[in-house]
Design brief:
The complex is a heterodimer of chains A (about 325) and B (about 240). By secondary structure, chain A is an alpha/beta fold. Chain A is about 35% helix and about 30% strand. Chain A is built from twelve helices and 13 strands. In chain A, the strands form three sheets. Chain A has a six-stranded mixed β-sheet with strand order 5-6-7-3-8-9, sandwiched between helices. In chain A, strands 11-12-10-13 form a four-stranded antiparallel β-sheet. In chain A, α2 (about 90-105) packs parallel to α4 (about 135-150), α4 (about 135-150) runs parallel beside α5 and α8 (about 235-245) packs antiparallel against α9. Chain A starts with a strand and ends with a helix. Chain B has one domain (about 1-235). Helices cover about 80% and strands about 0% of the residues of chain B. Chain B is globular. Classes of the chains: A alpha/beta (about 325), B mainly alpha (about 240).
């Protein structure tokens, strides 16, 4: 299937700082890709390149197999930047009229229908005549999303679209994004793991402009990691017993002080087909049979484990919850 | 064309949805009216040439306030990212912004036509030079606007954009001073050709000299091209 949007060996620098290093990525129609990574990892730059706001230094960006014409945006893209691009002096209706006037093909009737669809779809009837400057943050975000999908684009790019919303608004926004995603390729950047787990079918993790992880979310969700504080005594026997458990991928221990060690046990049930919870129970049974658990340091699961493992596999500050809190 | 019209309408709506454009137009009308009335009642001069001269000077002051928002404000509030990712060419973006600015300029000048009424009431003015004078002032305003839009496209702060435009316009206005002092004789024709004040008298008399009109139009087109190149620069950052 032809990808809806693809980056081929794309490099991008700002002055001496290279932000993206030979990034290749393609998104098929119907996929919702979560773009993850810490600040400065290149998420926004990637989205801006896809949207045509930036031009790559080298490499190619293709939208539905074609390179966009330089010096103009693309009608196949619906884009909502991190800060919703709104004009406070316009009413919601005037703003959508502007968007439809630029993006919607066909005559006045087609534009009117697109606006009505957007107003109904994003529940904006009550504020259609209000100045955008008077809207709440959640309403503003809805207006931004409505503008992004006005012409029913096959590619939707959302840069931290739920940032700054309260929990109720986040749930509403997720539902709207899910509705928008039907039949489209969606690339969604976020810092929030729950957000990505709730919305995406695939995760792409960037670190310092490099793609370090690209996996279907189903696979990622089967990955778990448990960190325990255990007595150092009986080290070897426990290590052997845990390594023999089905699905367990890695076991390592770090001596914390004379009598105590930190154990990190990772497993992935994507290939074994067992339920992650069942493996967890088995791991705990083995641990309890060999040692007395002093503390459960953390149970990372799914995307968070994936993200931490991809970003800093050996960084004690990222892995240790106590150190993370201190940091 | 559809995109151009949508952006043109949006520009006018945002211009007049904020107090800036309304205040600028009102200030221009008030000052033009004050200067015309002052000349009429205290200097006993009812010539439109004087009024056109005053309007041109006022336009140097107010046009940067009209143009400063064009791109600098879009960059500041994050909407430039939207504009540059919409299916619009850079030329269309610049043209629509320029057309909206020209509409504000036309509105400003239209308001001053009230000055012609007392002249028509008490005398028999020759309307040809008056119409020509208005066209001349409009051309000057259009040039100021184009320069302002070029500057605004390079800035992300509208105060900086307005200040830089004032600087450029004042410099261009007094460009012929070295020629008048004969400081650089070899460069005098160049300074005079670029000077906005050197050709001004003909324009406000409604003469519209061909070469000077072509120069004004060329500089305006060049400025708009600079604005389009600056937009491309945003993408290539």
């Amino acid at each position: 299937m032809q990808p809806a949007v693809a980056l081929h060996q794309v490099c991008k620098s700002f002055g001496p700082r290279q932000v993206l290093h030979s990034l290749s990525l393609s998104v098929a129609p119907g996929e919702i890709v979560g773009l993850l990574g810490p600040n400065g990892s290149g998420k926004t730059t990637t989205l801006r390149l896809m949207a045509g706001f930036y031009t790559p230094d080298s490499g190619r960006v293709t939208i539905r197999g074609r390179e966009p014409a330089p010096g103009r945006g693309n009608a196949d893209i619906g884009y909502l930047p991190e800060r919703a691009p709104l004009y406070d002096a316009l009413t919601v209706m005037q703003y959508l009229e502007f968007g439809a006037g630029v993006k919607v093909a066909g005559g006045a009737r087609a534009r009117r229908q697109a606006i009505e669809r957007a107003i109904d779809g994003f529940d904006l009837q009550a504020v259609a005549g209000s100045a955008i400057g008077r809207l709440s943050k959640g309403q503003r975000q809805r207006v931004g999303l409505a503008q992004a999908v006005l012409n029913d684009p096959p590619v939707l790019l959302l840069d931290e679209a739920t940032n700054g919303l309260d929990p109720v608004q986040i749930v509403e926004a997720r539902a709207m994004i899910r509705r928008c995603a039907e039949g489209r390729a969606v690339v969604f950047s976020s810092h929030l793991m729950q957000e990505v787990e709730a919305l995406c079918t695939r995760i792409v993790i960037l670190r310092q402009g490099h793609l370090v992880e690209d996996a279907a979310l189903g696979q990622a969700q089967s990955a778990l990691q448990l960190q325990l504080a255990l007595p150092t005594a009986g080290h070897t026997a426990l290590h052997a017993a845990l390594s023999g458990c089905a699905g367990v991928q890695a076991v390592d221990a770090t001596v914390l002080d004379a009598g105590l060690s930190k154990w990190r046990i990772s497993w992935n049930t994507a290939t074994s087909g067992e339920a992650p919870g069942a493996v967890c129970d088995q791991v705990l049974r083995v641990v309890l049979a060999h040692a007395q658990v002093r503390a459960v340091l953390s149970l990372h699961d799914a995307v968070e484990t994936r993200l931490l493992a991809a970003l800093a596999p050996n960084d004690p500050v990222l892995w240790d919850p106590v150190l993370r809190r201190r940091a | 064309m559809k995109g151009f019209l949508a952006l043109y309408r949006k520009e006018l709506r945002t211009d007049f949805g904020s107090p800036v454009a309304l205040v600028v137009v009102a200030v221009f009308w008030a000052l033009s009216g004050y200067l015309f009335s002052f000349n009429l009642f205290f200097v006993s001069t009812g010539q439109m040439v004087t009024a056109f001269h005053n309007m041109t000077i006022l336009l140097i002051l107010v046009m940067p306030l009209v143009s400063m928002r064009a791109f600098a404000e879009e960059a500041r509030q994050g909407t430039l990212e939207l504009l540059l990712t919409l299916p619009l060419s850079d030329a269309t973006l610049v043209a629509a912004k320029y057309a909206a600015g020209l509409t504000v300029l036309a509105l400003m000048l239209a308001g001053t036509t009230a000055a012609v009424l007392p002249l028509a009431w008490y005398g028999q003015p020759d309307y040809g030079p008056i119409v020509g004078g208005y066209i001349g002032v409009f051309l000057y305003g259009a040039l100021f606007l184009a320069i302002g839009i070029a500057v605004s496209s390079a800035c992300s702060n509208q105060i900086v954009a307005a200040s830089a435009t004032w600087g450029i316009l004042v410099l261009l206005w007094f460009m012929d001073y070295p020629a008048a002092l004969d400081a650089f004789p070899a460069l005098s024709p160049f300074f005079q050709a670029l000077s906005l004040s050197a050709q001004h008298v003909d324009f406000i008399r409604g003469v519209l000299p061909g070469p000077a009109t072509v120069t004004l139009a060329s500089v305006a087109v060049l400025a708009l091209m600079v604005a389009a190149v600056n937009l491309k620069r945003w993408r290539l950052r």
